[in-house]
UniProtKB/TrEMBL annotation:
It comes from the Bacteria. The lineage of its organism: Bacteria, Bacillati, Actinomycetota, Actinomycetes, Mycobacteriales. This is LppU protein. Residues 29-54 have a biased composition (Low complexity). It comes from Nocardia speluncae. Residues 29-57 are annotated as: Disordered.
Length: 198
């Protein structure tokens, strides 16, 4: 059900979009011989229903107010995504807001995901998102249609379970994690999330 609002005497439809995960997760874990960059991430988007509301806040996202550093739960499906506030590092949180933008195309190229809304086909705002990585915590980056899920580190049924062992700042190569390690490389912002596969 699309939210309908009144704008200057005309009615508008607000549509929310999220970047869906690929079958292997939102970003690709790599070994020391490969380092994917933003060109390796999927960029397909779908139109979905936004939360019901009567007005958008200053960042163009209707009925949802998140600040940089806040965490969210992005879920649903690629055709019906939803977003909710969540406490960082909890079971409900799968993404952290890294910036706000006028359009999803304005998000940094190595962002893991975004949530954007549009009115009458024109984007009104976007939340740029990274996976809510927690050192010592585990994620199934191959689960869900719009993103990863936080899991218990003893989980045996994860599609692509990883445990975060370190986050290396000022690095743009998985070798920062050590020989034979795997990691998620964020080349534009120069950090690497080092992981062990479950």
């Amino acid at each position: 059900m699309a939210a309908v609002i009144a704008v200057a005497g005309c009615s508008s439809t607000i549509d929310g979009r999220a970047l869906p995960a690929t079958e292997t997760g939102t970003v690709d874990a790599v070994d020391v011989t490969t380092t994917p960059d933003a060109g390796d991430r999927t960029t397909t988007t779908t139109t979905t229903t936004a939360p019901t509301t009567t007005e958008a806040d200053e960042d163009g996202i209707a009925g949802f107010d998140a600040e940089v550093g806040d965490c969210v739960q992005l879920g649903g499906t690629t055709t019906d995504a939803d977003i909710e506030e969540a406490s960082c590092g909890t079971a409900a949180s799968n993404y952290r807001v890294i910036s706000k933008a006028a359009r999803s195309s304005d998000c940094v190229s190595d962002a893991d995901n975004y949530y954007a809304e549009s009115r009458n086909g024109v984007e009104t705002g976007a939340l740029c998102l990274d996976i809510d990585w927690v050192i010592g915590g585990c994620m199934d980056v191959g689960s869900g249609s719009t993103g990863p899920d936080r899991i218990d580190c003893t989980e045996t049924t994860a599609v692509d379970g990883v445990k975060v062992v370190a986050i290396e700042e000022n690095a743009d190569d998985v070798n920062a994690c050590g020989a034979g390690s795997s990691g998620y490389v964020y080349t534009e912002r120069r950090f690497v999330v080092c992981v062990e596969e479950l």
